[in-house]
Amino acid sequence: MAKADEYIEEAYMELEKLSLDEQKRIKYEARQEKRDFIIRMIKKGMDTEVISEPADASAEEIEKVRKDCKGGRNDQSGVS
Predict the structure, then answer these.
(1) 3-state class of 78 per DSSP?
(2) In 3D, which of 56, 55, 60, 50 has the Cα closest to residue 68?
(3) How far is the CA of 14 from the CAs of 10, 17, 23, 39, 67, in angstroms?
(4) pTM for the predicted model, two decimal places
């Protein structure tokens, strides 16, 4: 019986670990979608203030994306 309890505990710990990784993946994808949206709006020539509300992003976040794009730290070059 002790071996079964040990197995269940090990399986539970593995499940928790996988759940955390799934949550991390979901959060990463959401951040990436937000960043992609900001980049598209920047490419269309929109001002930071206009992008801020629909992107649910601060001016600082948007300016960081704008700076990263200009510095070549994004695969979508040509952003001004």
Answers:
(1) coil
(2) 60
(3) 6, 5, 14, 37, 40
(4) 0.64
Neighbouring C-beta atoms of residue 62, cutoff 10 Å: 23
Which has the closest alpha carbon to 76: 31, 27, 42? 42
The domain spans of the chain are 2-70
Of 38, 39, 47, 31, whose CA–CA distance to 79 is shortest?
A: 39
What digits encode the pLDDT tens for the residues 15-66?
777 777 778 878 888 999 999 999 999 999 999 999 999 999 999 999 999 9
Closest CA to 45 of 6, 80, 10: 80
**What's the distance, CA 51 to chain centroid?**
17
Residues 6+ apart with CB under 8 A from 25: none
42, 69 contact by CB (below 8 A): yes
